[in-house]
Design brief:
Helices cover 30% and strands 23% of the residues. The protein is of the alpha/beta class and 329 residues long. A hairpin with a 2-residue loop joins strand 4 and strand 5. The chain is globular, with a radius of gyration of 21 Å. The chain has one domain: P-loop containing nucleotide triphosphate hydrolases (Rossmann fold), CATH 3.40.50.300. The structure holds iron/sulfur cluster.
Length: 329
Amino acid sequence: MTSTRVTEPLLQVRNLVKHFPVRGSRFRRSVVRAVDGVSFHIRRGETFGLVGESGCGKTTTGRVILRLIPATGGHVRFAGQDVFELRGRALATWRRQAQIIFQDPYGSLNPRLTVGASIAEGLVVHGLGTRRERETRVHETLTAVGLRPEYARRYPHEFSGGQRQRIGIARALILQPQLIICDEPVSALDVSVQAQVLNLLRDLQAAHGLTYLFIAHNLAVVRYIADRIGVMYLGKLVETAPGDELYRQPRHPYTQALLSAIPQPRPGQRQERIVLGGDVPSPLNPPTGCPFHPRCAHLMDVCKQVMPPTRELGPGHTVACHLYEDETC
Ligand code: SF4
């Protein structure tokens, strides 16, 4: 889906780094390089999909952007402001403007609170509205996510997985954010319910002008919702492109392998599956040169020694791979 309703960048992420120190390691200075120099931007009203295998750093990227965990390095700018420099009221405003939807809606809801109290929590924390006004906002938000206002009096265990994720969306929506980080929001749901929740997210985006960072390991899901997509491997962004183009013409060998694993919807349409050898290397001890080189079918000598720089191969299409050394737009 290529968006035409988007113009200016709302979020800019530059060279974001998050390293976790490893306690008890034999090597005193050991760190897990969870996010290692990630840069991308998201325009207002756009959905940017961040994909990759489990442990590639995509969830950590989202949490560092939201300041749920501190960054090791890099910059995040939101509507022109340096997010890591915000303090006091400006920080409180940012915390309202940027919300998150979690993968596990049940785990993110307090079982002892009614759904209404859970949804209203953000309003209470930020001191917004009277009790009556908050109640009205909860009812309106429940309606907006396709649930009945009277559900506010019920508890999380009384709902299905899909309904609980709608409640998770309502918790994010009630603060009227500009940016929502959707962290694997449909991964825990049945396939039949996934499409309903994805459609709800798209409808809410159109109605409220929302901007999404959509994190997922399932490329078919990301294809459905994202305008542009970034592919992460071992803490690095290896390819970024408009959604349609990435699926039509993936350039990085890792992206090609990921896409080859998606089942084809039309009978008779066959695609040769690229099977990756070996496991994802440990971010505690990443390979030299290109991080993908131990698993790459196109391995060259240079790949083991030199980290490939990110090149732009076409409008908005970047790739970090030595195969394209002579190719730039
Ligand atoms: Fe493969 Fe080399 Fe490209 Fe890395 S830089 S993806 S090892 S061809």
